[in-house]
């Protein structure tokens, strides 16, 4: 492979920035504002999922190829870095959501099932959709961070490290692509709500992240192919994504099964071109800034939307637009504050924490 992923890739910053902007827009259901969204937009969470699979897949492939081995120490080191990146923000905003619900500032229900949110079990196989609404996607991400390296490790141990790492990685990716689809096929004929039981469950959505893993695999092991057909793939991805975003999804069986797979596939096709984007012709800083604070934006935006909706009355569209602008400014400022004084310092700590380097083992 001639080129490796650097710390920041401009095209992926664009994708992450667009993802969070789309998510916030889709949830901004203020009066007079909810009807101004003209263009059909993909689901921003799907963009996040595929991007996450690509980045995490690349990190783990690097670990394996660098050490020619993968063991429990490697899994621990990976998880520590991920958890320092995600868990502090998650638990902070879980507690904030609980407090906001308790004092009646936002909608939600506090009961015995709230404990499931502390162990990411709120949507593992059935939904508990009554507080911290946006956490369903974070739960899927956390289970992916845990299950992907553990599945890899299990296959390495089962094969006694005699099978090439490249093949074990591919087998693991195939498992992540197939199992959620098979599970959805078994569930598709049941009278279950699509949004809660198919779009938002861990067991039904890991394959969306799996398409990002597939991108990382092809990028690492077949880079010339990845680079050669990037423009063709990009066009195919845009056409497929536009088609899936605009079609009338009345066939529930398709919606609950192949639609989710095809969404992941369409975003996968965008990755080669985006990964190759350079910043000479496009201003870098705005995208990089939004990309960096996107996690905080994701956690803040729904409570903030609810507080704004409960606080302000929208007598006309001009007042609504003004409040909407103020909402966006406050969202960005709060997200920057959380990123700068909470999220980033904790990420800096993780750079100093490592169990120990594990030695390589020649196969």
Order of helices and strands: HHHHHHHHHHHHHH
Oligomer: single chain
Shape: globular
Mean pLDDT: 89
Report how far the terminal alpha carbons are from each other: 20 Å
- Radius of gyration over C-alpha positions, nearest whole angstrom: 21 Å
Would you count the extended β strands for me? 0
Q: How many discrete domains?
A: 1
Could you explain how this protein is built, in words?
This protein has 14 helices and no strands. Helix 1 crosses helix 11 and helix 7 packs parallel to helix 11. The chain is mainly α and about 375 residues long.
Short description:
With 363 residues, the protein is mainly α. The chain is 70% helix and 0% strand.
Question: What brief labels describe this structure?
Answer:
disordered N terminus, mainly alpha
Q: What topology emerges from the helices and strands here?
A:
Elements: H1 10-27, H2 44-67, H3 72-102, H4 135-158, H5 165-187, H6 194-199, H7 202-221, H8 223-228, H9 230-246, H10 252-256, H11 258-276, H12 285-292, H13 294-311, H14 317-350
Helix pairs in contact: 1-2, 1-11, 1-12, 1-13, 2-4, 2-7, 2-11, 3-4, 3-13, 3-14, 4-5, 4-7, 5-7, 7-11, 9-11, 13-14
């Amino acid at each position: 492979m001639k080129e490796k992923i650097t710390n920041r890739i401009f095209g992926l910053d664009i994708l992450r920035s667009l993802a969070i902007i789309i998510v916030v827009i889709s949830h901004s259901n203020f009066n007079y504002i909810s009807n101004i969204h003209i263009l059909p937009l993909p689901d921003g969470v799907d963009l996040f999922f595929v991007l996450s699979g690509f980045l995490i897949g690349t990190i783990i492939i690097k670990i394996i190829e660098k050490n020619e081995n993968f063991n429990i120490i490697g899994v621990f080191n990976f998880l520590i870095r991920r958890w320092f990146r995600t868990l502090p923000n998650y638990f902070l905003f879980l507690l904030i959501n609980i407090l906001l619900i308790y004092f009646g500032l936002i909608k939600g229900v506090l009961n015995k099932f709230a404990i499931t949110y502390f162990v990411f079990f709120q949507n593992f196989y059935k939904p508990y959709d009554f507080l911290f609404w946006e956490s369903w996607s974070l739960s899927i991400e956390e289970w992916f961070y845990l299950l992907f390296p553990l599945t890899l490790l299990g296959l390495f141990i089962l094969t006694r490290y005699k099978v090439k790492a490249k093949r074990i990685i591919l087998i693991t990716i195939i498992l992540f692509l197939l199992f959620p689809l098979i599970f959805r096929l078994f569930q598709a004929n049941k009278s279950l709500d699509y949004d809660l039981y198919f779009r938002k469950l861990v067991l039904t959505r890991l394959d969306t992240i799996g398409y990002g893993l597939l991108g990382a695999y092809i990028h690492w092991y077949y880079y010339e192919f990845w680079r050669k057909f990037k423009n063709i793939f990009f066009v195919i991805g845009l056409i497929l994504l536009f088609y899936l975003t605009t079609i009338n999804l009345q066939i529930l069986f398709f919606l609950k099964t192949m639609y989710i797979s095809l969404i992941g596939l369409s975003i996968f096709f965008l990755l080669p071109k985006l990964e190759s984007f350079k910043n000479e012709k496009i201003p870098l800083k705005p995208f990089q800034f939004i990309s960096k604070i996107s996690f905080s934006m994701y956690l803040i935006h729904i409570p903030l939307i609810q507080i704004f909706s409960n606080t302000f009355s929208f007598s006309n569209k001009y007042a609504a637009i003004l409040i909407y602008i103020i909402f966006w400014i406050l969202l960005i400022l709060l997200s920057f504050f959380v990123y700068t004084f909470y999220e980033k310092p904790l990420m800096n700590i993780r750079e100093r924490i490592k169990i120990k380097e594990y030695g390589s083992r020649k196969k």
